[in-house]
């Protein structure tokens, strides 16, 4: 079975490391960066299956990051992961076939919801709980 590669783009260190540990328990390979700019650099040296993106990032915001990536990389999948309780998808993002339509809200009471979204995007029923 192929190991799913995740890039987590979030400037909240404690939450990021907790999510990384959880996903690694399911044999996922998780890398963390704290900005969109660092995510672009990371993608130049490694490829990922799913990018989990916070909206509020230093520098480029998460929405602009996803839109920019979609123009460059066709096969990437995205999950928006935000602390904004009233967030709704931008018009430009609503038509994206590679973006989960389920917005994951912080704080999470558990990480199962985000793992379920990864499995759904990848189509990996063997990797489900």
Automatic annotation (TrEMBL):
Keywords assigned by UniProt, alphabetized: Phosphoprotein
Pfam families membership: Response_reg
Coiled-coil region: none
Modified residues (4-aspartylphosphate): 54
InterPro entries found in the cross-reference section: Bact_response_regulator (IPR050595), CheY-like_superfamily (IPR011006), Sig_transdc_resp-reg_receiver (IPR001789)
GO biological process, one term: phosphorelay signal transduction system
All copies of domain Response regulatory, residue ranges: 5-121
Protein name, as recorded: Response regulator
């Amino acid at each position: 079975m192929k190991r799913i590669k995740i890039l987590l783009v979030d400037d909240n260190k404690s939450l990021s490391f907790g999510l990384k540990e959880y996903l690694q328990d399911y044999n996922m390979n998780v890398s963390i960066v704290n900005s969109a700019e660092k995510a672009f650099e990371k993608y130049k040296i490694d490829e990922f299956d799913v990018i989990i993106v916070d909206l509020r990032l230093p520098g480029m915001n998460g929405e602009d990051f996803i839109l920019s990536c979609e123009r460059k990389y066709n096969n990437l999948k995205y999950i928006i992961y935000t602390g904004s309780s009233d967030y709704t998808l931008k018009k430009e993002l609503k038509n994206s076939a590679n973006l989960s339509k389920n917005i994951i809200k912080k704080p999470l009471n558990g990480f199962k919801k985000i793992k379920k979204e990864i499995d759904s995007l990848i189509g990996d029923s063997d990797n489900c709980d």
